[in-house]
Amino acid sequence: MKTTNTNKMIKISLLVAISVVLMYFDFPILPPFPWLKIDLSEIPALMGGFAYGPIAGGVIVILKVLLRLLIKGSATGFSGELANIVVGLALVVTAAYIYHRNKSKKTAILGMIIGALVMQVAAIFANIYVFLPLFNMHLEGAAL
Predict the structure, then answer these.
(1) Global pTM?
(2) Is 53:99 a contact under the CB 8 Å cutoff?
(3) How far is 3 from 111, CA to CA, in rounded Å?
(4) Which of the two residues, 70 and 80, has the higher pLDDT score?
(5) Which DSSP category does 36 fall into?
(6) 21-26 — which CB contacts under 8 Å span 24+ positions?
């Protein structure tokens, strides 16, 4: 029993380390908007979520952001890191939960598609109600 738990913890920690390294390789989605960047650090979290469950995937997302914060610090007053956690959890936990209900290639793809949609909705609401107010920014004329 201990060997299995130790093996699982080691694999999760390796996925966290890979995610941290992948966070350094970010690039702008559209060159005119250099602040809007994408990185591939959610891929190891998705792999961990598919292999060990949604909770393990969520732990990988949180630990990768915390480790990057400890290594590099925050240029956004912690709101960028919090946003990364929110969208990462929305994607990984949703996809891993759907996959774990019925493990197949079809549910893995379906989970990632639904996870991407949930991530978009979570990002919109988090931006409107959490992150914009953190910077004292408000949407003018928005009926939300």
Answers:
(1) 0.85
(2) no
(3) 30
(4) 70
(5) -
(6) 23/64, 23/68
